[in-house]
């Protein structure tokens, strides 16, 4: 019998760079992999490991969006799974890990700017779109998506 060895653990911001670069900032300078607030005390990063290889990442920032009235809001950023490992459930597990982390911090709401291509993925995880699409220069069309936690 064979077992798939997958585990998710907390990682540093710098550890996210290999996957951020490959999936989210391909062909761009490595400096573009650094996000504002990456090392703030309320920011956390999780990595998904498959056979000890980092294959997916997610970051959670304490960040309020004025579209929402809830006070304790968290933003997901830098959600990415290496192409060869997509479609195996790792992305969904990372979002669930981030949700549990936010629940432990008494979050009221999770929101993020979703790339157009990732909207169906987040809808499957019960996130909803609010408002119209908008363009993030050099990245593409996005939608704000959210889930109320309480
Ligand atoms: C979007 C992304 C994070 C999803 O991660 P993943 O590991 O491939 O997703 P999962 O395998 O966990 O998929 C969970 C479910 O969503 C579905 N899904 C995933 N990506 C999808 C997509 N682009 N369109 C439609 N459905 C999708 C899967 O089929 C699966 O459905 P199921 O539960 O019925 O089997 C990953 O594809 C990725 O890194 N894409 C490129 C970068 C990106 O767009 N990041 C998001 C920035 S906002």
Automatic annotation (TrEMBL):
The protein here is known as GNAT family N-acetyltransferase
Annotated InterPro entries: Acyl_CoA_acyltransferase, GNAT_dom
Pfam families in the record, alphabetically?
A: Acetyltransf_1 (PF00583)
- Tell me the superkingdom of the source: Bacteria
Q: Where is the N-acetyltransferase domain positioned along the sequence?
A: 3-150
């Amino acid at each position: 019998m064979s077992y798939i060895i997958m585990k998710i653990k907390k990682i540093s911001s710098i550890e996210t760079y290999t996957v951020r670069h490959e999936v989210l900032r391909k062909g761009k300078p490595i400096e573009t992999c650094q996000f504002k607030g990456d090392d703030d005390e309320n920011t956390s990063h999780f990595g998904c490991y498959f056979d000890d290889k980092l294959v997916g990442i997610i970051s959670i920032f304490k960040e309020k969006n004025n579209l929402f009235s809830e006070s304790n809001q968290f933003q997901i950023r830098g959600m990415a799974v290496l192409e060869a490992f997509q479609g195996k459930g790792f992305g969904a597990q990372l979002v669930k890990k981030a949700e549990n982390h936010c629940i432990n911090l008494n979050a009221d709401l999770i929101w993020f700017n979703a790339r157009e291509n990732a909207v169906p993925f987040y809808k499957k995880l019960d996130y909803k779109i609010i408002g119209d699409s908008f363009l993030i220069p050099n990245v593409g069309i996005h939608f704000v998506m959210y889930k109320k936690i309480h």
